[in-house]
């Protein structure tokens, strides 16, 4: 569904990604693992059309999307949840969700408030609260829920477990499982191998902007030297 080949990206003169190759299949949850600064966010942002200097090939459903405007990439069916929560503090939970509403898509589930509130019971309770009154974890949930209002087929989640309480991390894992059951594909960037293992079908590891590993979690478990080398802090 998503194919990234020989992706190179730079910020100004600094080359950040070199020949990054990865793919996400239909209804697959794929983890992009790496330490702080390894290039996970830059990979996701490049796919979403948010990095200016990029080269290589990115195809979604067979269509080349690299270099397209970000809103066109969203319209094609990709949903992006950035690492930093971008909710509107002065709007209620429901109003925040309304902001994300897009036309339904024939090839992806259509999300309604009720459907989302089943998936995010915390948000259901707080539907009339202002965004700024939510906890960090709830704001993270709201960011994901708002992205789902765009009815994406593939969701790119940048470090969903970062900086949130363990109980919310568990809920996050449940939600990602639910997205898969709904038929969506998900690419998550993560530093947390434990969380990634729970939610994902397979993994990539990126280090210094280069792909170092592609394979199963079982293989990573059997070869702990790989995670020690590329993930241990
Ligand atoms: N806008 C920018 N301008 C210049 N350099 C940047 C910019 N954004 C990121 N970088 C640099 O690019 C490198 C990769 O950053 P990136 O955010 O992709 O890493 P990451 O793996 O997502 O890590 P993190 O967990 O810190 O988000 C880092 O060295 C970072 O300092």
TrEMBL record:
GO terms for biological process: L-amino acid transport. Residues 2-233 form the ABC transporter domain. Keywords: Amino-acid transport, ATP-binding, Nucleotide-binding, Transport. The lineage of its organism: Bacteria, Pseudomonadati, Pseudomonadota, Alphaproteobacteria, Rhodobacterales. Coiled coil: none annotated. SUPFAM superfamilies: P-loop containing nucleoside triphosphate hydrolases. InterPro entries: AAA+_ATPase, ABC_transporter-like_ATP-bd, ABC_transporter-like_CS, BCAA_Transport_ATP-bd_LivF, P-loop_NTPase. Belongs to the ABC transporter superfamily. It comes from Cribrihabitans marinus. PANTHER family: ABC TRANSPORTER ATP-BINDING PROTEIN, HIGH-AFFINITY BRANCHED-CHAIN AMINO ACID TRANSPORT ATP-BINDING PROTEIN LIVF. Pfam families: ABC_tran. GO terms for molecular function: ATP binding; ATP hydrolysis activity; branched-chain amino acid transmembrane transporter activity. This is Amino acid/amide ABC transporter ATP-binding protein 2, HAAT family.
